[in-house]
């Protein structure tokens, strides 16, 4: 029975690790979506968007990140409550078994029941992980698509051949600040998001 508690703790630790990775992958997924899209036109102008600044000031990104964090917190609390309830049942069983208050048939039935509940708890934790991963993927895709669609509209006059993403420590080691359109992009995205929220 002690192994059951250990297994549940390991599953929860893995679940928290996955949630942590998913949470911080939101930024990298959006960055990948932006950096792999090119806005084409006939001239040779190249501009860039500072993604670190965009993440810090894009209202929809902040709202979606907060939404994901709230969902993660609820999931962690739910899993913890279920784990505590399960551990109480295990402790109650162990106490009764040590005191010799259970028939062999009762012990076998309770052990099977506890093993079934342990399996359900693990499956439930996996289900929640999968839900969070799917929601994170959808949010990443939505943000990336919003940025790409805005850049297409922003460049509808064909001023730029390329719009690159720039992050500190990324592939672009140096960029001339005169090519930075980050402020315009942030203002445009926030204006569009505020209008959609209403």
Main structural class: mainly alpha
Number of H- or I-type helical stretches: 5
Shape: rod-shaped
β-strand percent reads 5-15%
The spatial strand order of the largest sheet comes to 1-2
* Total number of domains: 1
Largest sheet: 2 strands, parallel
The overall average pLDDT, rounded, is 84
Task: Give a concise summary.
The protein is mainly alpha-helical. It has 5 helices and 2 strands.
Summarize the structure in words.
By secondary structure, this protein is mainly α. The chain has one domain. The protein is built from five helices and two strands; from the N terminus they run αβαααβα. It has helices at residues 2-35, 51-57, 59-98, 104-154, 182-197; strands spanning 46-50, 162-166. It has a two-stranded parallel sheet with strand order 1-2. Helix 1 packs antiparallel against helix 3 (59-98), helix 1 packs parallel to helix 4 and helix 3 (59-98) runs antiparallel to helix 4 (104-154). It is rod-shaped, with a radius of gyration of 25 Å. The protein starts with a helix and ends with a helix. Residues 33-44 have low confidence and may be disordered.
Topology summary:
Elements: H1 2-35, E1 46-50, H2 51-57, H3 59-98, H4 104-154, E2 162-166, H5 182-197
Parallel strand pairs: 1-2
Helix pairs in contact: 1-3, 1-4, 2-5, 3-4
Task: Please describe the structure with a list of short key phrases separated by commas or semicolons.
mainly alpha, 5 helices, 2 strands, two-stranded parallel ribbon, single chain, 198 residues
């Amino acid at each position: 029975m002690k192994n059951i508690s250990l297994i549940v703790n390991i599953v929860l630790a893995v679940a928290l690790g996955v949630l942590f990775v998913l949470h911080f992958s939101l930024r990298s997924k959006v960055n990948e979506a932006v950096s792999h899209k090119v806005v084409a036109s006939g001239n040779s102008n190249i501009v860039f968007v500072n993604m670190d600044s965009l993440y810090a000031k894009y209202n929809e990104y902040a709202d979606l990140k907060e939404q994901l964090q709230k969902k993660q917190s609820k999931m962690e609390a739910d899993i913890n409550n279920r784990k505590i309830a399960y551990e109480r049942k295990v402790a109650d069983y162990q106490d009764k078994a040590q005191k010799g208050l259970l028939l062999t048939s009762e012990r076998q039935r309770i052990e099977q029941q506890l093993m079934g509940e342990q399996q359900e708890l693990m499956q439930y934790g996996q289900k929640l992980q999968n839900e969070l991963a799917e929601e994170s993927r959808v949010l990443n895709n939505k943000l990336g698509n919003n940025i790409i669609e805005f850049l297409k509209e922003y460049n509808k006059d064909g001023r730029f051949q390329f719009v690159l993403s720039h992050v500190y420590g990324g592939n672009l080691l140096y960029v001339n600040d005169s090519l930075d359109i980050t402020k315009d992009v942030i203002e445009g995205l926030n204006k569009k998001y505020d209008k959609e929220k209403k």
